[in-house]
Every structure is written in structure tokens, then in C-alpha cells.
Amino acid sequence: MGTIHWTTLSEVQSKPVQWLWEGRVPFGKVTLLDGEPGSGKSLVALDMAARVSRGAAMPLERLKPAGPANVVIYNDDDSLADTIRPRLEAADADLTRIRCVDAEVSAADLQDIRPSLIILDPLSTYLCRDDDAPARKIIRNVTRLAKETGAAVIAVQYLPKHGSWAGEIYDAARSVLHVSTIGHGRYRLGVTKSNLNALSDVPPLVYHLEPTDDAVRLAGWADSV
């Protein structure tokens, strides 16, 4: 058995939640980015990565971050050369601040990088899930990564409506963003779960895709009507 660590709550100092994107993406916690296959979840994640890398505000946010910050990306579905880099360039990312990794990482691996944002896309592949291991135990590795690095962790994953694996991911995430297609080339990004504030405080947003020479980027962000 492991050693139990006791904490007297009176010794814990209260502090407000810190946000990468106010009401949507918290620092030090896991945010699930959900949506049907082909809905553009990865594009949303890369748009956030580009903004963080150049120190730009998130869509419709008035306050800018203190400055540019580093980003770590795990992406098992797309080519770095013909998909990830062109999409980030289209979003005006500072590529010198973005590191890509091909395996599971720990906080110790990221000590020198000190990322503000970590993107795991898709989560199920990143975790290399062993069917014999409890889903909650596997997800704990990701929540620990967020806590120990202090970074905002975006877990990109389409979740089916049924299954314990999907339920464990949903429960572990402190915020859940859902991408959906609303027609006429427009998309909707809404918060469908938050353990940190009221859903009514965070209105859904809409955007469309804008083609560039080599890729597409997100544009036209606005409040949903």
C-alpha cells in the first residue's frame, strides 16, 4: 500500500480559477474538445495553439495574455509536414514556440519547455489504452499532467453517447467544449459542461472556415444567435 498524504484544509489557501480562455479553457485542468468526426475539432485546437504562441487573445476576449507562450502538441492523425504546419501557418502561429511529440509525456519531460497549452489529439491514441486498465486510472495520468505543469490541457476526442470509457473522460474533464456544424459553412462552439462556472455565463460562439493558399483557418468569430 502507498503512503497516505493528509492535508489539513485550513492550511490550503483559496485562489481563483486561472483561465487560458475565460469560462472555457482553464489552466491546470483538462478540457475536453468534443464533436462528430469531421466537425473540425483539430482546427479549433490549432487555432488556440496559434494564439497562445503569438500572445494573442482568444476569440472575442478583450484581455490579451501577458505574452507569447509555448505549446506542446500530440497529433497522431495528421502529418506534421502537409497538415499541422500549414494549418498553424495559416493561423499565424509562431512555430518556434510549438513543439510536437509522438508519445505520452510527463511533467518532468516538459520542465524546460513550460508550455501554457498542451493538445492531445486524439486522446484515445495518446493514452495507448490497455483494455485491462480501468479507464479512470488512465485518465488520471492526463489530469496529473495538467495539475503538475499548470498548463491548459485540451483533450480532443469524439465521444460516443454510450460506454464507460466515454463516461470516464467526460467526468474527468472540468470543462467540455462541443463543436457542431450549423450549416451554410458555419460552425458552433459551445460549452456543454463546466465544473468551474455556470453554463449560462458562457455563450456559444460561431465561426466559419476561410481558405488560404495551403490550408484553411478559422475566421468570423461571433456570438451565436
Describe how the helices and strands are arranged.
Blueprint: E1 19-21, E2 25-26, E3 30-35, H1 41-54, E4 71-75, H2 80-90, E5 98-101, E6 117-121, H3 123-126, H4 135-149, E7 152-156, H5 164-172, E8 175-183, E9 186-194, E10 205-211, E11 216-223
Parallel strand pairs: 3-7, 3-8, 4-5, 4-6, 6-7
Antiparallel strand pairs: 1-2, 8-9, 9-10, 10-11
Helix pairs in contact: 1-2, 4-5
Tell me what the structure shows.
There is one protein chain. This protein is α/β, with parallel strands linked by helices. It has a single domain, classed as 3-Layer(aba) Sandwich (Rossmann fold), CATH 3.40.50. Helix content is 24%, strand content 28%. The protein contains 5 helices and 11 strands. It has helices at 41-54, 80-90, 123-126, 135-149, 164-172, and strands at residues 19-21, 25-26, 30-35, 71-75, 98-101, 117-121, 152-156, 175-183, 186-194, 205-211, 216-223. The strands form 2 sheets. Strands 5-4-6-7-3-8-9-10-11 form a 9-stranded mixed β-sheet, with helices on both faces. A hairpin with a 3-residue loop joins strand 1 and strand 2 (25-26). Helix 1 (41-54) packs across helix 2 (80-90) and helix 4 packs parallel to helix 5. It is globular, with a radius of gyration of 17 Å. The relative contact order is 0.20. The mean pLDDT is 92.
